[in-house]
Design goal:
- The protein has about 130 residues and is mainly beta.
- The chain has a domain of about 90 residues: Sandwich (Immunoglobulin-like).
- Helix content is about 10%, strand content about 35%.
- The strands form 2 sheets. Strands 1-6-5-4 form a 4-stranded mixed beta sheet, with no helix packed on it. A 4-stranded antiparallel beta sheet has the order 2-3-8-7, with no helix packed on it.
- β2 and β3 form a beta hairpin.
- The termini are far apart.
Length: about 130
């Protein structure tokens, strides 16, 4: 049986990672594709309507969090009669291990798609070993 203090400690850590929103709007989890290359991992997150000035990316205690906001365009002379598209913010978190060089993470946004490049640390990159004749 696990120690009671340890279980509470891990629950507190999990609860602190899930931040509550201060904006009264929906928060979507962006759909994400992850591609692994030999020297990096590339993450593509779909966040329609988000540009580079409305993206916040943090890395704290091994958790990479992306947060994007969308400013809805409201027309003063019109009332919405029916809407199928919903506006909201985007938030998603990923655990980053020490296999990633955390100082070299890069990000860019184009057409509502966030691209994060997570370079692998030198110690985990594949190395070519040359074979010599005896």
């Amino acid at each position: 049986m696990a120690e009671p203090g340890k279980a509470l400690e891990s629950r507190r850590e999990q609860a602190s990672l899930q931040a509550e929103s201060t904006r009264p709007r929906r928060v979507f989890v962006p759909r994400t594709d992850i591609i692994e290359k030999t020297d990096s991992i590339i993450l593509f997150a779909d966040m329609p309507g988000v540009d580079e000035s409305h993206v916040d990316i943090t890395l704290e205690k091994g958790v990479l969090t992306i947060y994007g906001t969308v400013d809805a365009a409201y027309h003063e002379d019109y009332d919405i009669a029916y809407a199928e598209y919903s506006i909201g913010d985007y938030r998603r978190s990923f655990t980053v291990t020490d296999e990633i060089d955390q100082d070299k993470i890069g990000a860019s946004v184009k057409d509502g798609v966030l691209r994060l490049t997570l370079p692998k640390a030198e110690k985990v990159k594949p190395k070519k070993i040359t074979v010599k004749t005896a």
